[in-house]
Write a sequence for this structure.
């Protein structure tokens, strides 16, 4: 996708924006809510956000801080947006920061802050970080195209929070545990009785068997934990765990998942989570939440006319 | 070093989860004019 610059903006488009510098401004989309309770958003969000802007150190520039959050009605839905200077989201600007951890974390924090404030009041489908539109009408058109799907998703996440769960395992400890496996025990006895050449080959086979058994044990543990937690959730989603962490830690991440949990059953879910955190030998869990339902703000294939 | 690796090493699970969510999840609607904000490999 290309950035929109003043000189490439079609005349007709500029005409729909009476503001003199309209071409330099875009619309940042935070998320989609149901229409209504708009007054609440307007009055409260301004306050929440001013506080956010003051406390945040903006690595990209302060130009957007004066702009209030706005609510764009889109049929039965509403889009939470803010006018932002397009220069902040130009390809150049984004490339310049693409590898800057602190900058991205700050962007994510600001994005999240607005969404959390709304999530505390009513259901919201968070937008992906950095979704910027040239015109308000473009946001409305985008919503109109998937209006029914968005409405169905909002219903699904109503009254729910998202919880993030990671499970880590000490591979060496799990490897010791699988050493009791009959196949591995039998191989060890065979090695003890074999001559040097054969023992060498058997040892290699033993290493392979042990690694395979450990992998399987880790997979099964992760799967069991996921299923256990999913039973107390409205929905669950598995994400690829950070495999490369094994190079820097004794522990590897074996499970990374998100769960959509009704607030009414949050206590039960958290009790299960904490028992996982207390953990078993060689395994432990970490979690964070409650989050707005980022991982469950997904559109299915269906398309509204 | 990629951001996620840095976060994994720092073991700041909340920050990792925040970035993971905001960057990698959230609903995507057509018609936005920005390139992908982050090209980093979220592991």
């Amino acid at each position: 996708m290309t950035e929109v610059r003043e000189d490439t903006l079609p005349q007709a488009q500029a005409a729909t924006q009476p503001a003199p510098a309209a071409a330099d401004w875009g619309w940042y989309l935070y998320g989609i809510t149901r229409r209504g309770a708009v007054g609440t958003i307007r009055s409260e969000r301004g306050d929440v956000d001013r506080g956010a802007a003051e406390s945040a150190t903006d690595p990209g520039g302060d130009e957007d801080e004066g702009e209030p959050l706005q609510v764009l009605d889109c049929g039965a839905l509403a889009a939470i947006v803010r006018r932002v200077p397009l220069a902040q989201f130009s390809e150049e600007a984004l490339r310049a920061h693409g590898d800057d951890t602190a900058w991205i974390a700050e962007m994510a924090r600001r994005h999240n802050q607005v969404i959390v404030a709304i999530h505390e009041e009513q259901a919201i489908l968070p937008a992906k970080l950095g979704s910027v539109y040239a015109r308000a009408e473009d946001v409305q058109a985008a919503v109109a195209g998937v209006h029914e799907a968005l409405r169905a998703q909002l219903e699904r996440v109503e009254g729910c929070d998202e919880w993030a769960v990671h499970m880590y395992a000490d591979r060496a400890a799990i490897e010791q545990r699988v050493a009791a496996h009959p196949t591995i025990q039998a191989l060890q006895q065979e090695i003890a009785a074999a001559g040097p050449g054969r023992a060498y080959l058997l040892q290699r086979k033993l290493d392979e068997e042990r690694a395979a058994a450990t992998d399987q044990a880790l997979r099964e543990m992760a799967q069991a934990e996921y299923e256990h937690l999913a039973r107390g959730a409205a929905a669950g989603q598995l994400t690829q765990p950070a495999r490369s962490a094994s190079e820097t830690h004794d522990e590897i991440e074996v499970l990374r998942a998100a769960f959509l949990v009704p607030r009414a059953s949050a206590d039960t879910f958290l009790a299960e989570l904490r028992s996982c955190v207390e953990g078993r030998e060689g395994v432990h869990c970490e979690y964070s939440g409650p989050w707005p339902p980022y991982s469950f703000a997904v559109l299915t294939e269906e398309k509204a006319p | 070093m990629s951001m996620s690796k840095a976060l994994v090493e720092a073991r700041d699970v909340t920050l990792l989860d925040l970035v993971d969510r905001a960057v990698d999840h959230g609903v995507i609607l057509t018609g936005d004019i920005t390139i992908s904000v982050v090209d980093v490999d979220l592991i």
